[in-house]
Write the structure tokens for this entry.
Amino acid sequence: MSLNNYLPPIYDQIKGMLLEKIESGEYPVGSKLPSERELSEQYKVSRMTARNALTALVNEGWAHRTQGKGTYVAQPKIKRDLLKLTGFSQMLKQKGLKPTNHMLDTNIFEADKLISERFNIYIGDEVYRIIRLRSGNQQPIALEYSYLPAKLFPNLLKYDFETDSLYRIIEEEYGFRLKFAKQWVSLAKANEYQAKILQIKPEAPILILESITYDESNTAVEMTRSLTRGELCVFYTELWRDPVKIDNRGES
């Protein structure tokens, strides 16, 4: 059979039509989608086909089911680009969301072995810790812990981190030009405290993004541990294959 004559399964076609209505705003976030029975009657298909179309939307993150009530349009996932060194608030603005920060705590503590190795400082040196709840359009998205060596940023805690950008303060107030960051992504389950702050259920999946940011002199100036709601975000990166060397036998 020619690929030009190939049509996707009926349920996939119905899913595509529903998705077009979601993206156009005909079905806004939080609205109820047609039921299996309604889709079956509208498109003259079986209930199983209609169920598969709705299930595909749920599995792809476009919708969520509420037991006994129906299927509803979900909040679109926020794509966090791992290719660019961008502040959280700037990233949300680029996605069309209004960022807000809620300060949970700021303090100064003595660096332990791990922190001292990350920043190349002595154990016992003072380190700032800034804890914020990061939200978009008033919806909690990430619980973020930021760490900075106190010797690099005297009087840092005088700034208002609810309204000001930490990256702006680092670059413009202290003169560190940010260059690159190392990042690690892992998956965990939210404990009771994290779930309460992020407004999710305990043991719900959270994505953990840990990063160390360096300036142009390769000095580590900030370390971040961001706990992100797993159902709201997806991380994006790219993989490039190195040129493949062909040996004399024609093998790669």
Observations:
- Strands lie at 63-66, 70-73, 78-81, 99-110, 126-136, 139-149, 178-189, 205-215, 220-229, 233-236.
- The mean pLDDT is 89.
- The longest helix spans residues 10-24.
- DSSP finds seven helices and ten strands in the chain.
